[in-house]
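Students often ask what a holo structure prediction actually looks like on paper. The answer is less mysterious than it sounds. You provide the chain, you provide the ligand, and the output is a string of discrete structure tokens encoding the 3D arrangement of the protein together with iron/sulfur cluster.
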Amino acid sequence: MTVSTDMKKGLSCTQAKSMYQNIRNTTQLFGILLAAMLLGMGIYYFNILYVIGALAAAVFAGRVFCGWICPNGAWMDHVVKRFSLHRKMPGFLVSRWFGYSFTVVFLGIFIYLRVFITDAPWVWTIPIGMMAVQMTLGTILGAIYYPRGFCAHVCPWGILGSLLGRRAAYQMTINLNCRSCGTCTTACSLGGILEPAISRVKENHKPETLSADCMRCMSCAGACPANAIQFGPVAPGHFAKKAKTSSEKPSAASTG
Ligand code: SF4
Ligand code: SF4
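The corresponding structure tokens follow.
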């Protein structure tokens, strides 16, 4: 089954968009309540459990956790969005190397604290501190630039999820129904990740998968008037074929 074509049958774009939004609001609320419950039970490493879940899900379906469960993401979507200046992020912040470097430093500090500081009375604050750092940075970048700017370019778990999800069996795809109208691009909270795939569909006359940075939130699928965006399994051998095609056609843009 491909989500979107099957779920959108008989629904207008506005209805489909609000259906996906309502489901997502519910799963994000579940993510927040579960986190609060685990914290209340004294399970201070609950965010490590979340990270393991997020990365395991990414192997099969990409960054679904970021779009549907992450409490930090929910904060950006529902709170930071209200006061964000909605501007483009500067080049150095969106560079891959900035994201990779931040990930290495963030994980390095966490591993160091976890391995070498084991008997300090404040050891239980480490995972909460990690979360606070992510939330603070996310809020600052979200306020100055756009709400999911941190998620798109800086969040270590998002970056790892994106790397692990590159060849996931379930992908977001734009099919040949696409009319290049650009409606989906305004619905996407990650900014600019749909355009390369839209261009490739037009250029290559075949369905194209979206960037691995996509959070599978379905906002674009709900907004698309041509029902051209779907989430579902890709054919076996899809990535091998894709790699072969791009090595034969060096001018074609990469999927990411
Ligand atoms: S909204 Fe649909 S038809 Fe328009 S560009 Fe996006 S995928 Fe193509
Ligand atoms: S490309 Fe679509 S599914 Fe992916 S993050 Fe953007 S709106 Fe959500």
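The pocket of iron/sulfur cluster (ligand 1) is lined by residues 174, 178-184, 198, 224, 226, 228-229 (CB under 6 Å).
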